[in-house]
Each structure stands twice: as C-alpha cells, then as structure tokens.
C-alpha cells in the first residue's frame, strides 16, 4: 500500500503548477511595495519544516537582494514580551496550518507596530492569514500525512516568487515557472542506495552549506519524524568544529552538494569523511562522478533545493516503510502543533 506521505510528495508538481497560475498580481504588487518602501529590517517567523523554508527564503533575499534577514526567536514576543522596534520592518511568516499561537502573535504584534506583515500559508482562512496584511496562499491542498511534504515544497516556491517579484527579475521568474516539470522529473530518480544504507541505521549526520543547508535541516527532521533515526544537520563548514568527533567506522552521512560556490567544499568533505571510515551518501548533480545519489537540478541553481527535496521525500517515505514504520502517523506527533 502506498503511503499518503509518498502520494502527497509525488503530487507536489501539480500543486506548484496551481500556485504559479494564481496570485501573480498580488505578488507583483507586494514586490513593487517593497521596492518603493524598503523595510528597515527583515524577520522570518516560523516553526518546524516551515522554519526550514524560512531559512531558504532568508538565504534568497540576502543573496539576491543584499538585505540582512534574521529568524525571530518567537518567545521574545510570546513569553518575554520584549519591546521590539517593529516600525517599517518586514515580517514574513510561513505556515501550513496557520494555527499556532506563537506564529500568529508575533505577526499581530508586528502589524500593530507598523511593520509590513506577510504570511505564506496553506490555509488561507486560518487565523494567521487573517492576521497578516499580505496573505499569500500556498495552494498545496489538504495535507493528510503528518509529515509535511507538498506544503514545504510550495512554501519554497512561494518564497522564491516573493524574492523574484521584489527583485523584479524576469529571468528568475521564468526559471520558477519551469519548476513543475523539474519536480516531476525528480520523483523518478532512484535513491534506493540510501535505503539500503539507512534501513538498519539508528543515526545519521546530514550536511549542506549555503543554499543547501535548509535541505539538510529539513531532511534531518524527516529522518526523525518518519523513521525514528537520530539525525543531526550541520553546515559543511561546521563539521570540523566538533561534530567530526562523532564520526567513526560506518557512520552514515548524507551530503547535499548542490550547484554553486559551496559545492567544491562539500565534495572535498565527502572525500575526507570517506577517508575517516564514514559511510557517505553524496547527493550531487549527474556531472559529479563521485556521487552516490543523483540530485535533480532546476533552471537555475537558486531553485535546486526545491527539486532536491522532492527526490529526498520519495526516498524518505519508502525508507520509513522499509523500517517497518508508518510515515503517515509518526509516533507522538500530530498534524497541527500549537505552541505558545
């Protein structure tokens, strides 16, 4: 029986296509607003998988627009009641459900304090969508599996659209339009070598850097959620600052070596970790001969994480079943998590 997680992950392309056909004028209007009145500061507001999408959003904005973006520690607003200076700021919330109080309350605080507030949210009738000034629907449809897949992918696409319209970059917008085809191709890749290595494993280190770090963060979370594997995510630049002490013979590492300036260092790290006895699963594009897993690529490297996570999700759903688990009902977890 095919899991809901696998079905939903494989459906991401059609939901991305739906999203791309909607809300163009709204994104364009927001982009023009941000160009006309640049924010004094930029913050992301999110939890869990959505926070990994926010990490990607922040990277795009910083890399393509040169604006510094910080992730808001939500308890500063919800528990500490800190007097944050929010006027003329931009607060970007990302959420599948739009239900968690500790995501809603900061957006309400920022909006009331004179900030521009944006919600990239799947449930457009949710409290978060009603609280933000700019609510942009993900169009992922109902997600029944506890583990987020298509909603995460559509969150990444929405973040890319926001950045492209803010930048007013026609070439980047055109590259985004090509994502559905690339996502469909990603579902067909064979990542079974990863299942062979990880089915008996109880631990793994997941590595990325730069734009691939959100991939590592999201993948580590899915290993924990759906396969009960103790997974830790690190930047490739941090491995030698302590985490390398964990590496022993046969220790599994999944390394996301996406295209771009960080790739060479990650390929070098893979070689070094193999030399230390680690069982490396190097995920890289098909022009990297030493790869163990083929990473799909998009029309531009900045979009590669979107298609890469698609390939990972298919494998992760299959791995969970191979380990005798139900990826749709991870133990101790529920679909909507409400934290304060």
Mean pLDDT: 93
Which parts are unreliable, with pLDDT below 50 for 5 consecutive residues or more?
none
Structural domains: how many: 2
Strand adjacency order, main sheet: 2-1-3-4-5
Pattern of helices and strands: HHHEHEHEHEHEHHHHEHEEHEEH
- Dominant shape: globular
Computed CA radius of gyration, to the nearest angstrom: 19 Å
Number of helices: 14
Helix content: 40-55%
Relative strand content: 5-15%
Strand segment count: 10
Class inferred from helices and paired strands = alpha/beta
- Compute the separation of the termini in Å: 37 Å
**Judging by the overall fold, what is the CATH architecture of the largest domain?**
3-Layer(aba) Sandwich
Question: What's the CATH H-level superfamily name of the largest domain?
Answer: Glucose-6-phosphate isomerase like protein, domain 1
* CATH level 3 topology of the largest domain: Rossmann fold
Description:
- This protein has 2 domains: 4-179, Glucose-6-phosphate isomerase like protein, domain 1 (Rossmann fold), CATH 3.40.50; 190-295, 3-Layer(aba) Sandwich (Rossmann fold).
- The chain is 46% helix and 14% strand.
- The longest helix has 19 residues, at 304-322.
- It contains 14 helices and 10 strands.
- By secondary structure, the chain is α/β, with parallel strands linked by helices.
- The protein has a 5-stranded parallel β-sheet, with helices on both faces. Strands 7-6-8-9-10 form a 5-stranded parallel β-sheet, with helices on both faces.
């Amino acid at each position: 029986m095919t899991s809901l997680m696998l079905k939903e992950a494989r459906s991401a392309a059609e939901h991305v296509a739906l999203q791309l056909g909607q809300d163009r004028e709204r994104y364009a209007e927001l982009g023009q607003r941000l160009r006309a009145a640049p924010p004094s500061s930029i913050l992301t507001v999110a939890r869990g998988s959505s926070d990994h999408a926010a990490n990607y959003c922040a990277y795009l904005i910083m890399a393509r627009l040169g604006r510094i973006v910080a992730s808001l520690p939500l308890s500063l607003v919800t528990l500490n009641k800190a007097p944050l200076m929010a006027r003329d700021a931009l607060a970007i919330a990302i959420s599948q459900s739009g239900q968690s109080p500790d995501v809603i309350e900061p957006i309400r605080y920022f909006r009331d304090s004179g900030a521009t507030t944006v919600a990239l949210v799947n449930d457009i009738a949710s409290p978060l969508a009603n609280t933000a000034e700019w609510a942009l629907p993900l169009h992922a449809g109902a997600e029944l599996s506890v583990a987020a897949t298509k909603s995460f992918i559509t969150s990444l696409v929405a973040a890319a659209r926001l950045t492209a319209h803010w930048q007013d970059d026609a070439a980047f917008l055109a590259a985004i339009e090509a994502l559905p085809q690339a996502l469909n191709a990603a579902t067909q890749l064979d990542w079974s070598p990863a299942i062979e290595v990880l089915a008996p494993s109880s631990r793994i280190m997941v590595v990325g850097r730069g734009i691939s770090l959100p991939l590592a963060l999201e993948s580590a979370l899915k290993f924990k959620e759906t396969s009960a594997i103790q997974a830790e995510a690190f930047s490739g630049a941090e491995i030698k600052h302590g985490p390398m002490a964990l590496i022993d013979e046969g220790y599994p590492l999944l390394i996301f070596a996406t295209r771009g300036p960080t790739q060479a260092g990650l390929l070098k790290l893979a070689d070094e970790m193999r030399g230390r006895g680690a069982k490396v699963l190097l995920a890289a594009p098909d022009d990297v001969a030493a790869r163990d897993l083929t990473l799909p690529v998009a029309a531009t490297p900045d979009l590669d994480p979107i298609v890469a996570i698609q390939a990972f999700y298919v494998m992760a759903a299959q791995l969970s079943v191979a380990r005798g688990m139900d990826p749709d009902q991870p133990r101790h977890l529920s679909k909507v998590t409400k934290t304060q």
